[in-house]
């Protein structure tokens, strides 16, 4: 994938700040919404930012390692939840709906034949999910590139449909384990700090997951620090698809709304390939999965919400979208001290 992501230009910064500061409120009193408005204005290169046709892209994929016991749930939950997304019954359906955000669900490599399914984006790289990284690479270099290209295609299609902000979500049993390995390899944080309970492992399950992931690292003695090598070795198809979608979305000047631990693992890969992507990212929330705090600290960022969510699917991103709308609304709709005839500080 050939990607060029320019850093967001700062020429409008002073003017945007002045516009925000002239609104009928004490300076800084809208807190994080003011920073958000500034960021959105700079990304869009305008004094009047707008969120248009927002979407959440949920990428789903299966993990060979799931059968080794890295999750509290069986692998079949991945395809069953995809069916649930399509039927409108999952948490992300409810939260996207209430936020006024459209949902797009993509099969990046789920081990299931969905049959003809008009509402499911077919981006299947393999009909059996990834290989088990305890035995070798989860995917080939070609499969990894294919998954990333599929993500880029979907992001560009959304842009053509008038969307200028994408929230990212995922579904894949075992993918917190994959995200832990990626995070360890790409941030250098000790594995123990980035392995968590995922869907709800008990203490014995957590110890087993940690031991399996140590084994996975030991099975790759020639370990490379290159982000695409790490992604192919330990990634999921949904994670690779997300990384590709994020890169294309930022290249297209869109706003990227980043969800929890797995989505941020995909971003770690993307940010190593194109560091300026971070200018386009709004970090929606801090997940309860402990490795997410490590990722956020590594990226030097602070998320908008801290609600103790640990679900994924893009649920945190859906909850953050109304804040993006609020940031645009105050910049575009509030009066200034001058226009409203309100006295400023003397
Ligand atoms: C019913 C159900 C719905 C979900 N929706 C998202 N996830 C979340 O849990 C999975 C990751 O956790 P682990 O690595 O422990 O398997 C992902 O599929 C993620 O999106 C779910 C998990 C379950 C069980
Ligand atoms: O932070 C997340 O996205 C997350 C945490 C646990 C399980 N699934 C997703």
* Overall morphology: globular
Low-confidence stretches: none
User: What is Rg?
Assistant: 20 Å
CATH topology: Rossmann fold
DSSP strand (E) fraction?
5-15%
Number of domains: 1
H/E element order: HHEHHEEHEHHHHHEHEHHH
Number of helices: 14
Count of DSSP strands: 6
Specify the helix fraction band.
Answer: 40-55%
For the largest beta-sheet, the strand count, sense and barrel status come to: 6 strands, parallel
Mean pLDDT: 98
Our measurement of the CA-to-CA distance between the termini, rounded to an integer number of angstroms, reads 56 Å
Function: Catalyzes the synthesis of alpha-ribazole-5'-phosphate from nicotinate mononucleotide (NAMN) and 5,6-dimethylbenzimidazole (DMB).
Keywords: Cobalamin biosynthesis, Glycosyltransferase, Transferase
Organism: Sulfurisoma sediminicola
EC number: 2.4.2.21
């Amino acid at each position: 994938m050939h990607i060029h992501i320019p850093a967001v230009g700062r020429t409008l910064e002073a003017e945007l700040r002045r516009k925000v500061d002239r609104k009928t409120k004490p300076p800084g009193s809208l807190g994080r919404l003011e920073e958000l408005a500034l960021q959105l204005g700079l990304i869009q290169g305008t004094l009047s930012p707008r969120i248009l046709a927002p979407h959440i892209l949920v990428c789903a994929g299966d993990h060979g390692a799931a059968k080794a016991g890295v999750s509290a749930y069986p692998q079949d939950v991945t395809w069953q939840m995809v069916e649930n997304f399509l039927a409108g019954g999952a948490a992300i359906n409810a939260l996207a709906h209430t936020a006024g955000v459209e949902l797009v669900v993509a099969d990046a490599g789920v081990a299931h034949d969905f049959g003809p399914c008009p509402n499911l984006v077919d981006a299947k790289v393999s009909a059996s999910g990834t290989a088990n990284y305890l035995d070798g690479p989860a995917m080939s270099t070609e499969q990894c590139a294919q998954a990333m290209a599929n993500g880029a295609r979907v992001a560009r299609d959304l842009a053509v449909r008038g969307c200028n902000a994408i929230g990212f979500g995922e579904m894949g049993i075992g993918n917190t384990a994959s995200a832990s390995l990626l995070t360890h390899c790409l941030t250098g944080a000790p594995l123990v700090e980035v392995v968590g309970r995922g869907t709800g492992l008990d203490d014995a399950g957590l110890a087993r997951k940690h031991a399996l992931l140590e084994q996975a690292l030991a099975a790759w003695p020639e370990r490379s620090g290159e982000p695409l090598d790490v992604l192919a070795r330990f990634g999921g198809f949904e994670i690779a698809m997300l990384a590709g979608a994020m890169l294309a979305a930022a290249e297209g000047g869109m706003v990227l709304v980043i969800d929890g631990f797995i989505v941020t693992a995909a971003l770690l890969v993307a940010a190593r390939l194109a560091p300026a992507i971070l200018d386009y990212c709004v970090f929606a929330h801090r997940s309860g999965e402990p490795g997410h705090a490590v990722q956020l600290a590594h990226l030097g960022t602070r998320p908008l919400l801290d609600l103790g969510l640990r679900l994924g699917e893009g649920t945190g991103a859906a909850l953050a979208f109304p804040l993006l709308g609020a940031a645009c609304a105050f910049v575009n709709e509030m009066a200034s001290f001058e226009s409203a005839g309100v006295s400023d500080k003397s």
